[in-house]
Every structure is written in C-alpha cells, then in structure tokens.
Amino acid sequence: MGPPTFLFPRAAQAHPPPKAYWKAGLTNCLGPACGFQALYYISYPAQVLAKSSKMIPVMVMGFLLHGKRYPLIEYLCCFMVTGGVSIFASKSSSHITTKLAAPNAPLGFFLCLSNLVLDGYTNVAQDEINRRYAGGTAMHMMCWMNFWTGFFYIPTMFVISSAGREVVEFCLAFPAAGYQVLLFCLCGAVGQLFIFYTIKSFGSLINTLITTTRKFFSILFSVLWNGNPLLPRQWVAVVLVFTGLIMSSVTKHRRRHVHLKKN
User: Fold this and answer.
1) How far apart, in whole angstroms, are the C-alpha atoms of residue 138 and residue 199?
2) Which candidate, 229, 197, 239, places its Cα nearest to that of 92?
3) What are phi and psi for residue 163, nearest 5 degrees?
4) Fewest beta carbons within 10 Å, which of 127, 157, 210, 260?
C-alpha cells in the first residue's frame, strides 16, 4: 500500500520538472537569433520562402529523435501547404526590394536552415514533454519555457553583448518607444497563451501549421484589401494551402472521432 494521495497528489507528480524544459528553452533562444541574423544577408521575402517549410523539420526531428511516425495524409498536407506558401511568397516578392547590410545568400540560407532545425527540435521536445507528463498544463509549459529562455537571453544581452543595455537606454531616452515596446511584449504574452494551449491540446505540428500559414493569410488579406490582382500561379498557391488545411482538419477530426468512439 503506497503513501496517502493527499500527501503526494498524483496530478502534482505528473507535472514536468523545471529542468525538463532547459534544452527546449536553449534552442528557443538560438533558433530565432539565427533567423534574425539571416536578415543581414538575405531579403525578408527570401527568408519567408525558406521558412515556409517549417513543418518538414518538425516531422523529421520527431522521427529521428523519438521515432514518431505520421500518417501519409499528414505528409501530403504538409507539402501542399509548404508548396503553396512558397509559390505565393516567391511570386509576390518580385515587386519587393530590400536593402541588405551585407548580401550573402549562402550564409543567409544556412542561418535559415539552422533556425528551422532548432525550431524543429524545440517543437518536438515540447511534444515529448507533453507525452511523458500528462499532468502538465499549457500555463506550466509557458512559464518554464519563458523562464529558461530568459535565463539564457539575459546574460547574452547584458554580459556577452551590450544590446540589452542599449535597448534600456534607448527606451529611457524615448519613453514613447518604451511604451510601444511594453505594449508589444504584452501582446506577445497574451498571444503565447493561445500558442501553448494549441501545443498542449493539439501538438506542435498543428501549431507549426498555424504559424506557417499566418503570414500567408496576412499577405492574402493585404492583397485583397488593397485590391491588387493575383497572378494565376498565386491562385494555384491559394488553392493548395486551403486544400491542405481542409484535408488536415478533416483527417484529424475523423481520427479524434474514432478515438472517442473506441473509448
């Protein structure tokens, strides 16, 4: 007979320990840093084009690290969405010119690849934590992911680099800018509530699917709102993305319905 449950609640034992998030927190720091650094060497549209395949590294990392397998339909939907975003971004970027600090396409795309691999590991690690510790909540994951991210970011910004000090000095010199930064951080914190809830409830692949298509919908709505006509290939891209999203949603709905029916 084990110890009384009121002394050691099972739900508490099922919570992930704080140290479970440190690796994901580290890659969550390094990945975006590589992405921002890539903008010094390639244009933003080129980066969007490269990062549109973000779902593929998530699947690859899941298979390599944890032997996770996805249904064939998931791979098909992934390539349809990725292909659609790529076609749309590549055609819409032809009218955009960007001044670069130091153009270097090979280095820029290498940094984008590093960003994708690191992000893929972060997402897979979060899925693995959710699988191992059923009692963990979205808020619990959000708090500890941000703790470890800050743990790695703060020394980098204030000790290794002077970037943090420069940002503080700038905000103190221009309070209006500091207010905008604070508002931006507040919006980011609220947005994270939905992001981590999605990861916890539906998995990192669905979250990646949403974040990957977010820019696509932003571009699409912007084009429609401003009355700019789409090229035929861009309409093909729209059809690919919507078809991939619908197929993915229908497949997951059917799978969940079958699972609930069995239980």
Assistant:
1) 8
2) 229
3) -60, -40
4) 260
Phi–psi pair at 42, nearest 5 degrees? -135, 160
Residue in this structure with the two tokens 């508490």, named with its chain if needed: 12
DSSP assignment string, 177-226: HHHHHHHHHHHHHHHHHHHHHHHHHH-HHHHHHHHHHHHHHHHHHHHHHH
Cα angle 245-68-240, degrees, rounded to a multiple of 5: 20
Residues 6+ apart with CB under 8 A from 178: 170, 171, 172
Q: Which two tokens stand for residue 197?
A: 């809830």
179 is written with which tokens?
A: 């207010």
DSSP reduced 3-state for 80? helix
Tokens 């914190």 appear where?
Answer: 189
Distance CA 56, CA 63 (A): 11
pLDDT in tens, 5-38: 443 344 444 688 989 999 999 999 999 889 888 8
* Spatial separation of the C-alpha atoms in residues 110 and 118, rounded to whole Å: 12
pTM for this one? Answer: 0.67
- Tokens 């991939």 correspond to what residue? 244
pLDDT band at residue 251 under the 50/70/90 scheme: confident
Whether the Cβ atoms of residue 63 and residue 147 lie closer than 8 Å to each other: no
Name the nearest CA neighbour of 220 among 206, 205, 241: 241
Angle between the N-to-C axes of helices 55-66 and 105-132, in degrees from 0 to 180, rounded to the nearest 10? 50
Q: In a 3-state reduction of DSSP, which class is residue 41?
A: coil
Interatomic CA distance for residues 18 and 145, integer angstroms = 9
Average predicted confidence (pLDDT) for the chain: 78
CA separation, residue 120 to residues 24, 55, 62, 125, 208 (Å): 10, 8, 8, 9, 9
